[in-house]
Specification:
The protein has a single domain (2-136), classed as Metal Binding Protein, Guanine Nucleotide Exchange Factor, Chain A, CATH 2.170.150.70. The longest helix has 7 residues, at 28-34. A hairpin with a 5-residue loop joins strand 7 and strand 8. It is built from one helix and ten strands. 5% of the residues lie in helices and 34% in strands. The chain has one helix at residues 28-34, and strands at 2-5, 12-15, 21-25, 39-45, 49-51, 58-63, 73-78, 84-88, 95-99, 116-118. By secondary structure, it is mostly beta strands. InterPro entries: CENP-V/GFA, Mss4-like_sf. Belongs to the Gfa family.
Length: 142
Amino acid sequence: MVRGSCLCGAIKYTLEGTPSTTVLCHCISCKKQSGSSFKANSIYNISQFNITSSSTTLKVYKDASPDAGDVVVERYFCVECGSNLYIKNPKFPGAVIVATGTMEFEDVGTGWRPEREYYCKRRGEWLEERGTGVTRRFQGMS
């Protein structure tokens, strides 16, 4: 089991089992939401995800960004500390896309490594020697 939380600790969750995949996403929305050059995500089945603290600070932003196309992605975050926690994408029903930076791997001694990269057309050139192997890089979402 992996535990996770927002920065202020108001919202806590657990994850059972292993993710279906781990991803670096370079889409515009993930960059803006993370405040970085990409966002590290772990994709789980929704049945593996459990919010363990009930908090009124959990809010959702309905994102209709250009990279998402005609899809509205739900981005869940804490309004108290600003931590982005997870995403629900209707293209992946039954899945939850968890912000890997909110996971407490130290508790279980588990490392994390990306298996795929999405929206590499927006990937920073300086990242060429990092991330996943070339065969796991996708220009868009697949």
